[in-house]
Design a protein that fits this description.
The protein has two domains: about 150 residues, NAD(P)-binding Rossmann-like Domain (Rossmann fold); about 190 residues, 2-Layer Sandwich (Dihydrodipicolinate Reductase, domain 2), CATH 3.30.360. Helix content is about 35%, strand content about 20%. The chain has twelve helices and 14 strands. The relative contact order is 0.16.
Length: about 400
């Protein structure tokens, strides 16, 4: 058994008898970030990688990652085949390639019986996303999607607050993701940016598929309401480029709840400007990723409240599972990634131990949320073309 402790819905996550073995497909900056976060959990060892399509560079990168040369692969196909045959093969794989490789890589590892955590968007096409959903449904394997912003402790607390009814009936949802890194005229020259502006690699969107989808997922994750339709307008606010750098849209959630979603990379002074506001008949709440440790709550007619990450002081036992340091000692994005990898580890271990976990015990973004993200992108593209509302 990998999980050493019984499942306690109100307690910490169970300890493990061993670290799980993690493989990496990709090797760029986001892969390094995720590997750092996975190691932080003390639940994963990074043991294998297809870190480059160039064989020589694969071995160079493997040395930097402290991966044994015999587990450095020049393709994800080779990696899946070889790791499936090993007695100590990987338990799961992270996929951090450019968007167009998500589907073939994920499908290959699912076919090999290896659990998957994949960057978003899940795929570039709705049809491919649906095929992955079918494969996961048939196999029962674990599949996580990297909507990591949903793994901040105060976002989990916000989700609980909304579900408790403190805000009353939700009547509007506003979310924005403002960045400025594409403002300089030479920003598009960087290798990690070029593919994001190439439709053959990035898919039909750039800004929407990268940060807009984070915003859409976060709004639904916290509110508990499904996004039903969008009216989106794509813009190029900076220098000419083949894909949009900005999107403005009106949104409608189930029950006819209206909202807005704004995303741009052309907002000087904004770096991690992800901001969520939800208003209801009794009150409202607000969260800003650049001040991720605080959650602002207002019940109309009562004093405003600021909840802060830490133990106690209004923080639920479920949220406390994700708290690593005491109140006043900051945590941030790496810890949010680690929270995702913690839940993913528990899910992978439980599947291998043949343990059925309680409903809602784990809330990591799953394959269904990944599929919804691709449908959101597709609807935005169609809306921008038609200049009309489009249903998801």
């Amino acid at each position: 058994m990998i999980l050493r402790d019984p499942i306690d819905i109100n307690g910490p996550f169970p300890r493990q008898s061993r670290r799980l073995r993690l493989g990496v497909v990709g090797g760029g900056r986001i892969a390094q970030t995720q590997a750092m976060a996975a190691r932080l959990t003390d639940r994963w060892d990074v043991v294998a990688g297809a870190l480059s399509s160039d064989p020589e560079r694969t071995f160079e990168r493997a040395a930097d990652w402290h991966i044994d040369p015999d587990r450095a692969y020049s393709s994800f196909q080779q990696m899946a085949e070889k790791e499936e045959q090993r007695d100590d093969g990987i338990d799961a794989v992270m996929i951090t390639t450019p968007n167009n490789m998500h589907y073939p890589a994920a499908k290959t590892f699912l076919d090999a019986g290896i659990d998957v955590i994949c960057d978003k968007p899940l795929t570039n096409k709705v049809e491919e996303a649906s095929l992955l959903g079918d494969a996961v449904g048939e196999s029962g394997q674990v599949f996580a999607v990297c909507y990591t912003m949903s793994c901040y402790p105060m976002i989990r607390q916000a989700q609980e607050i909304v579900a408790s009814g403190v805000l009353g009936r939700i009547n509007q949802i506003h979310v924005e993701f403002m960045q400025d890194w594409m403002t300089p005229p030479d920003a598009g020259d960087a290798s990690h940016v070029k593919w994001r502006l190439d439709p053959a690699v990035s898919g039909p969107t750039s800004c929407v598929g990268d940060i807009g989808t984070h915003a859409a997922h976060l709004a639904q994750f916290v509110s508990g309401l499904t996004l039903r339709s969008v009216r989106a307008d794509f813009h190029v606010c900076g220098l000419p480029k083949p894909l949009e750098d900005t999107v403005f849209m009106m949104t409608e959630y189930e029950g006819g709840v209206p909202g807005t979603l704004l995303a741009t990379r052309q907002a000087p002074g904004n770096r991690g400007g992800l901001r969520l506001r939800i208003f209801g008949s009794l009150g409202g709440l607000e969260w800003d990723m650049e001040h991720a440790e605080q959650l602002y709550l207002n019940v109309f007619g009562e004093p405003d409240q600021t909840l802060s990450r830490g133990h106690g002081h209004g923080i639920s036992t479920q949220t406390e599972r994700f708290v690593r340091t005491g109140r006043g000692f900051p945590e941030g994005l790496i810890e949010a990634w680690a929270n995702l990898y913690t839940e993913f580890a528990v899910a992978v271990a439980a599947r291998r131990d043949q343990i059925e976990l309680p409903d809602a015990y784990l809330r990591y973004p799953n394959i269904d949320e990944g599929i919804d993200g691709v449908r959101f992108i597709d609807a935005c593209v169609r809306s921008n073309i038609s200049k009309n509302w489009v249903n998801l």
